[in-house]
Amino acid sequence: MTGDPEKLLSEALRAQATRAPADTSPxxxxxxxxxxxxxxxxxxxxxxxxxxxxxxxxxxxILLLALVLGLAAGAVVGLMTLL
Length: 83
Known about the structure:
membrane
């Protein structure tokens, strides 16, 4: 039983496929939404625009964060050079 693993796998899959029952489901688009109608025949559903209040981050906050991160990185590098 030390044959080629790919050959063993293909034989196992082939044997499993011959024992599987035939698919009796009707042929359709197979959509997860459950609607087998073509998009042109489906009734149009109204869409609603969601208005999201997203505030912008002020530029001063970004610059302050960059400054703090730069100082922290410089402190770590300076400490590592002293060791």
